[in-house]
Each structure stands twice: as structure tokens, then as C-alpha cells.
Write a structure and sequence with these properties.
By secondary structure, the protein is α+β, with helices and mostly antiparallel strands. Strand 4 (about 690-695) and strand 5 form a beta hairpin.
């Protein structure tokens, strides 16, 4: 981004060169018009002052830990920037080398390698679809197209049991085998490193930008601890990595059929490098958003320093810091919004290729989140308009490939319709009436603000009222201060593309705020477009440049001071030695991590469940966080309406016992500090054993007698080939259910520790095919009465089974005898692969 000069002509949607004219905003402003912009700026600053005086923003102090993080990031950037200022010819290499070293320290070499390979793969795919100019700034646009392609591809793959590290690695490496294109991408980046010596102003702006990137990256380089990320974004990645597919099980997890395109992309990192690589993949998306903002500002005519200042202004916003810290998916939507705008209006190239790329972005928006449809429709219309200027074969090629992209973007809605009858399940069920959810819509939290400035002012100074658990000031202060002035500047300078960016960002946020507002962070994807629109302030004679630079710098400083307003109290403190410890991702003994990193204690308890000796355990809880659990979460809330109803109506210990049996719960986690869980906790404590506690969360092991059914051998099976009191035998189970855990219990009389025995269960389908036979041999290990347990899972399509037992290799004292045997049905193991109809 240092001292880059773009020599390529700007072209319109038909591919014709755009000559310098007033439509590009390079017109002189004279007379009263310049005072209109200055007056609008004064109004914005007045609103900002009024908001500080009348809201709680100044009352709530900024946490010392947040200030320490910010000052430490600034200190690191000053050291790096100082070195770049001394050796200006090496400035780019100094910044890049420092960034790589920090990434290696924060995430580890595996995560960095995955991110680098992924970025190159994205860019190569994008270059193949939409060839770029011989300039480095096209790489961010091409990477965004590649991200869309991979996102759509993985959205198909998660339906099948083929998601493995080998498959994902091969898919990332495959584009790199296109050596000529790979060399082209690498060459563009290398030429940027060898570009002209940057000016001191360039390096100063780059130092500020670097500080903000360090601040954002330092928070991301920590174990995930935020609710939504643990409830969905990291959880689904772990399920896919563990099982090799996604279950689409809406009964236990209501969000299972929602669009989750960016989650599948995070899953690439998790599959190849576990949580650090998943977090770094999120940081990669954030960096691409920053690069796209810079690219758009430059292509709309701003100079290099201005583009970096505006990019830094966006990066300093508290809500941006939240998005980069956590595994939220809104950066993905922001990428597709920005790249779609660039492809339509600011990217030269054949119309048919631009139409195809725009269609892929449209599909990626839809596959990422339903909210993406707000701008997916205009982008899709733009792609159709581009097709009007294509030849016959070119139009057919672009329509076919782009159509596939849009169709794959609609796949989550097709899945949801097929499995639930509601294409946007679990939302709007009052309209679509799926039997799997309450026949009602989610509450509408729309604010009813019909003027954009009302929305922006409220989001800035009354952020808490917009949900998402953020504090006042989370939306940043630049939009309230600069929006009116930027709009006026765009109009008086006839900078129509900047006005279009402002309008697109405003339209998106307006629709979200007045239609489906679910939380302030859902405004975020529109913020980058608004930031691009702010570039109109720097147009010739719109405002004095020194004034614009001073105002933007001051707003960056205010944003950084309030950098903690966008994330939750649990992350407002910091410990640098933990950030520098690579063991933080797996070590659960650090009391700081458990006490300060939000919901980390629940992750620790889930890991404890995994070590308790059960196959795919099932955890009953009122807190729907399944991250790190190698089993099924039974969440008694809106995620599982039937379970929620049953838990809310518990009135006796017997009711709780029936609930455990019906849902097959093996463990329970209770929040001992929540009075709303007191009754539930008392039932759990009376029937379970506390085996772990972190802070006020308690993990209980529920007695197997609660979730095991009667002995099927004693009730339905007939001995064959042996006697229950003998040394061998086979017992047939004529009726059983597939995808269930079954427990074999052997009560043995052992004459010597070296006595051996073997036990096995054979499952059969209804047409007589054997589905599994894995006999297990073991030693008694002691003398006298011994009890041994064997847990097995009935395969899909199994309808009956036979249990085999024998003692062999007798000791000198004789054989051991089987005193009793039981075969009991346990809980469902729903994590079996199925093809979505």
C-alpha cells in the first residue's frame, strides 16, 4: 500500500475506458458549494459532541487492559515504522517481515503456512476467472472471487463424509499447480516489494495502519471465548473435522441448516491447523477487507496516504476489532460487498468475466448469511446487465458458470426446505410453519429509525440498545461525524461512485435496522462501503486536505481510546505473557485463561466430558455451547424447543429421570451462579455425581442407570451354542434400533489374573447382511468376581444383533466362568452420515 501508482485506466460496466470527467469527482468546487460541505461537517461534529455530552459513553471508563493492548500495538508499530523511516528503500520489506514474525509468534508456523497457501489458492482461482491488470492491488479482488468459489465448493462437500485434511490440503494445493498463474500472482506482490521508495508521509500512514493491524491481530491470537463463536462458528468446524461431514441435525441443533459459508471456510483452517489456523483464517478475511477498502479508495482517485488513513479509520472502529478478534462471519459478507462493488464499477476487464465474477459473489453472499440477500439482489442484477454486452458464446459461458455459483449459494435454503419445510429455518416459522419449531417468528427488534442519521447516531451513542452485548460507542464515531459531509462532498463534486458506495452501505444498514435487526454487529458489513464513501471528503476543494487529515486522525484516536466498546467485558483485560505462550491453545491449567477469557470454562468442562470414557457423550445444559465436545449437546433453549419445554415443566425427580432417559443425556453442566437454573441444578445434583467445576459451572456425570434401558438378553434373546453359566455362548437380539449406543456388561468369575475372555457384537441388516463384527479380547487382570463393560454403536440400517462370548487360554487353575451378561440400549448416536434429500 506504500506509494502505489495505478496507471491502468478506469472502465465502465461495458469495459470502455472512463475518461477524466466530473463523474469521477475531479471537478472544481467554487462559491457557496464548498461551504455546504463545511457546514455539513460542522453539523456532524456537533452531533458527535452532543452525543458525548448526553450519553453514557464518557461515563463508562475504558478498561486498563484495553488501553494496554492499544498502547503496546502502537509501540510495536513505532519500532517497525521507525526502522522503515530510517531505511526507506527497505520499508515494504520491513513492514512485511515484521508482520510475518508477529503472525508466527501469535499463531504458529502451521497456521501461517495454511493461511499463505489458502491466500495464493484464492488469488489463483480468482485470476483464472477474472484476469487482472499488472498491478498488485488486483490481487485482493481476485482473492475475494476465489474465496467465493471455495466457500461454495465446501458448502457442497460438507454433505458427504469426505472432509479430511488430505482432501482439504489437495483442494488448496490444486490451483497452485497452475504454475504460470501462481508465478503471475507472486510476481505482482514481489514487484510491489521492489516498488518506488515511499515518502515519509507514506511510511507515517503505514505505521498507523500497522499499529491497528497489530491491535486486531493480538486479540485474534487467543483461544475463542465468545458466545456466538462457540455456539456456532467454531463448533460446526470441529464437528466437520471430527466426523468428516456436517450432520444437518435440526432436532438437536436448530441452526444446522442455516447458511454457513464462511464457517466452512474457517473449517479449512481448523481441519489443517486446528483452532489457531481457523482464527488466522478469520484474520486473513479481515486483512482482505482492509486491502479492498484501500484498493477501492485508490481506484476512485484518492492518493496513497488518504487511502491508508481511511483504511486505518475503518480498522480502528471498535466493532471492527470485535469482528477480527472472534470467529464471526461478517468479514466474509463485507468482502463480497466490496468486491462486488469493485467488479461492477471499478474493475477493467471483459464484461462476461466480470458478470461471472459478480454472480459468484452473489452466490457467496447468499451462502454466507440470509442478510447478504440485501445486496445480493442488486449485485445479481448488475451481473445480468453486464451480460447484455457480451457475445453469444461469452454470454453462455458466463451465464452457465455464474448460474452454478448462484445455485450453490441457494443450496442452504434448498437443504432447509427439504429437511424442515422452511427455507430460512428456524426464522420466520410463523410464515412457513415447519413442525420442527414453534409456529411463530422471532421477535422483531427493529428500531424504527427511518432517517439514516438516526440509525448512525443511535448505533454510535446508544449501541447497547442495538443488542449483541456491545457498549455505547461500539459503532465508532466516524460515521456520525462525517456521513453528512461526505454525502454533500460527493454531490457537489459529482463523485457519483463514492455516492453510490455511501448509498449502498446506508441501504444495507437501513434494511437491517428496520427489518430484521438482530444485533449491532450485523450492521458491520455495510461499514466498509460507508468508509469508501468517506473518501469524497478528500476531493479537490471539497475541504482543505489538512482539515480532512486532522479530523480523520482525531477520529482514529478516539476510536482507539474506546477500542473495547465493541467486545464483551470478558475480554477487556489482557495478559501479554499468555499471548506469547504457544501452549495457550491447549493448556487448560492457566487460571487466568479460565477466569478471564469469557466462556472458556465451559470449553474446559466439555473437554473433561471427552475423557470420561463414553462414545459420543450427550451433555444436557441450559447454555448452548458445544465447542470442544466430542459428542452431542442437548441444549434446553430455543435450539431444541421440545427439550426446552420438557425442562421448563420439570416438577419432580421422576420427571427428570424420564427426561434423561428420553433424551439419552449422559452428563449435565449447571451454572451454579444463575438462580434461573436452581431447580434444574437440584435435580441434576440429586441424580448425578459432580466430577469437575470451573468457576461457577459444574459438570455432573449422570448415572448410566438413568439412560440405559432394560436387559435385552434376558427379555428377548435365546441362548444359542452355549450356556449363560458356561464358558462360551451366543445370544440373538431380534429387535434393536440403528444409530444407538448399546452396552454389554459381563460379570465374570476369574480364577487367575491371566485368564482371558473375548466378547463381540455382530450387527445384521433386515436382509441378512452382516454390518460389523469386532470381537475384543481381554485379560481378567485379577481373581474373583470381575465386571467388564463394552460399548458399541449399532450401524445405520441394522435391525438385529448377536452377542458372542468365550473364555480361552485357561490358566493352570482352570478357565474363568461367565456368571451373567446383559445387553442394554443406551442413547442415540445421531452423528451418522446421511445424504440430504
Amino acid at each position: 500500500m506504500l506509494n502505489t501508482r495505478l496507471n491502468s485506466p478506469l472502465k465502465n460496466m461495458e469495459g470502455h475506458v472512463l475518461r477524466p470527467n466530473p463523474d469521477q469527482g475531479i471537478s472544481d468546487v467554487s462559491g457557496w458549494r464548498k461551504y455546504v460541505v463545511a457546514g455539513a461537517l460542522l453539523i456532524g461534529i456537533g452531533l458527535l459532541v452532543w452525543g458525548f455530552v448526553t450519553s453514557n459513553t464518557l461515563i463508562v471508563p475504558t478498561a486498563s487492559g484495553s488501553l494496554q493492548k492499544m498502547l503496546a500495538a502502537v509501540a510495536v508499530a513505532l519500532v517497525v515504522g521507525g526502522g522503515a523511516m530510517v531505511a526507506r528503500q527497505w520499508a515494504r520489506r520491513i513492514f512485511v517481515s515484521a508482520a510475518i514474525l508477529l503472525l508466527l509468534a501469535g499463531f504458529g508456523w502451521i497456521a501461517v503456512a495454511v493461511a499463505v497457501i489458502a491466500f495464493l489458492a484464492f488469488a489463483v482461482v480468482g485470476e483464472t476467472i477474472l484476469p487482472g491488470e499488472d498491478a498488485y492491488d488486483t490481487v485482493s479482488v481476485q482473492a475475494s472471487i476465489g474465496i467465493g468459489c471455495y466457500l461454495l465448493l465446501f458448502g457442497v462437500l460438507v454433505h458427504f463424509p469426505i472432509n479430511t485434511p488430505l482432501v482439504y490440503g489437495a483442494l488448496l494445493a490444486a490451483p497452485l499447480c497452475r504454475l504460470s498463474t501462481t508465478r503471475l500472482i507472486v510476481g505482482r506482490l514481489a514487484r510491489w516489494l521492489d516498488g518506488d521508495r515511499p515518502t515519509r508521509a507514506d511510511i507515517a500512514a503505514a505505521t498507523l495502519l500497522f499499529a491497528i493491524i497489530v491491535l486486531n491481530g493480538s486479540g485474534a491470537a487467543m483461544p475463542e471465548a465468545e458466545f456466538d463463536a462457540l455456539n456456532q462458528h467454531l463448533f460446526v468446524e470441529q464437528v466437520v473435522a471430527r466426523l468428516g461431514f456436517w450432520t444437518f441435525n435440526v432436532k438437536d441443533y436448530a441452526l444446522a441448516v442455516m447458511p454457513m459459508g464462511v464457517d466452512w471456510l474457517f473449517g479449512v483452517g481448523n481441519m489443517l491447523g486446528n483452532e489457531p489456523a481457523a482464527k488466522l483464517m478469520s484474520v486473513l478475511l479481515f486483512l482482505i477487507v482492509m486491502a479492498l477498502i484501500f484498493t477501492l479508495c485508490r481506484r476512485l482517485g484518492t492518493d496513497n496516504v488518504t487511502a491508508m488513513l481511511l483504511t486505518a479509520l475503518f480498522g480502528s472502529t471498535p466493532i471492527t476489532i470485535t469482528e477480527s478478534y472472534t470467529l464471526f462471519i461478517e468479514n466474509g459478507l463485507a468482502i463480497f460487498f466490496l468486491s462486488g462493488f469493485t467488479i461492477l464499477f471499478c474493475y477493467p476487464g471483459p464484461a462476461h468475466r466480470r458478470a461471472c465474477a459478480a454472480a459468484i459473489d452473489t452466490g457467496a453472499m447468499l451462502a454466507t448469511k440470509l442478510l447478504g440477500a440485501v445486496l445480493a439482489a442488486p449485485l445479481g442484477l448488475g451481473a445480468l446487465l453486464l451480460l447484455r454486452h457480451c457475445g453469444g458464446k461469452q454470454r453462455l459461458w458466463a451465464a452457465a458458470l455464474g448460474g452454478v455459483g448462484v445455485l450453490l449459494g441457494l443450496l442452504p435454503y434448498i437443504d432447509a426446505t427439504a429437511l424442515t419445510g422452511n427455507p430460512v429455518f428456524p426464522y420466520m416459522n410463523g410464515v412457513f410453519h415447519s413442525p420442527l419449531a414453534p409456529m411463530s417468528n422471532f421477535p422483531n427488534f427493529a428500531k424504527g429509525d427511518w432517517l439514516p442519521m438516526d440509525i448512525f447516531y443511535g448505533a454510535t451513542f446508544h449501541s447497547e440498545g442495538y443488542g449483541s452485548g456491545m457498549m455505547d460507542g461500539a459503532f465508532g464515531f466516524q460515521i456520525t461525524a462525517l456521513f453528512l459531509a461526505a454525502g454533500a462532498a460527493a454531490i457537489v463534486t459529482r463523485s457519483w461512485l463514492m455516492l453510490a458506495a455511501l448509498s449502498a452501505g446506508t441501504f444495507y444498514i437501513f434494511v437491517i435496522a428496520n427489518g430484521v435487526q438482530l444485533g449491532l454487529r450485523y450492521f458491520y458489513p455495510g461499514l466498509p462501503l460507508l468508509t469508501v464513501g468517506l473518501a469524497a471528503l478528500f476531493r479537490k476543494e471539497a475541504l482543505p486536505r489538512v482539515l480532512c487529515v486532522g479530523v480523520v486522525a482525531a477520529l482514529i484516536a478516539v476510536n482507539l481510546y474506546y477500542n473495547d466498546r465493541g467486545y464483551w467485558w470478558s475480554l477487556r483485560s489482557f495478559k501479554w505473557d499468555m499471548l506469547l505462550s504457544s501452549a495457550r491453545w491447549d493448556d487448560t491449567s492457566d487460571r487466568y485463561a479460565l477466569d478471564r477469557l469469557g466462556l472458556m470454562p465451559i470449553r474446559v468442562l466439555n473437554r473433561r466430558v471427552n475423557t470420561d470414557g463414553l462414545i459420543s457423550p450427550r451433555v444436557l445444559t441450559l447454555m448452548n455451547i458445544g465447542t470442544d465436545l466430542d459428542g452431542t449437546l442437548l441444549s434446553a433453549d430455543w435450539m431444541d424447543p421440545e427439550l426446552d419445554r420438557r425442562v421448563s415443566k420439570l416438577s419432580s425427580q421422576e420427571d427428570f429421570r424420564r427426561l434423561v432417559r428420553d433424551f439419552g443425556a449422559t452428563h449435565a453442566i449447571v451454572d451454579g451462579a444463575d438462580p434461573r437454573q436452581a431447580k434444574f441444578g437440584s435435580y441434576v445434583a440429586a441424580t448425578g455425581k459432580a466430577i469437575a467445576q470451573e468457576r461457577f459451572w459444574i459438570l455432573y456425570r449422570l448415572s448410566p442407570e438413568l439412560w440405559l434401558g432394560p436387559n435385552l438378553i434376558s427379555q428377548t434373546a435365546q441362548p444359542s451354542g452355549g450356556d449363560i453359566n458356561g464358558t462360551s455362548g451366543r445370544w440373538n437380539i431380534d429387535v434393536l434400533r440403528a444409530n444407538r449406543l448399546y452396552r454389554v456388561q459381563l460379570d465374570l468369575t476369574c480364577n487367575a489374573p491371566e485368564d482371558q475372555f473375548s466378547v463381540g457384537v455382530v450387527f445384521w441388516s433386515s436382509d441378512g447382511h452382516m454390518l460389523g463384527n469386532e470381537p475384543i479380547g481381554a485379560f481378567c487382570g485379577t481373581t474373583g468376581q470381575v465386571t467388564r463393560l463394552l460399548d458399541v454403536v449399532s450401524p445405520r440400517d441394522s435391525t438385529r444383533a448377536s452377542v458372542h462370548f468365550s473364555t480361552n487360554t485357561p490358566s493352570p487353575n482352570g478357565r474363568g466362568d461367565l456368571a451373567a451378561i446383559s445387553f442394554r440400549e443406551g442413547y442415540p448416536v445421531d452423528e451418522t452420515w446421511h445424504l440430504v434429500p
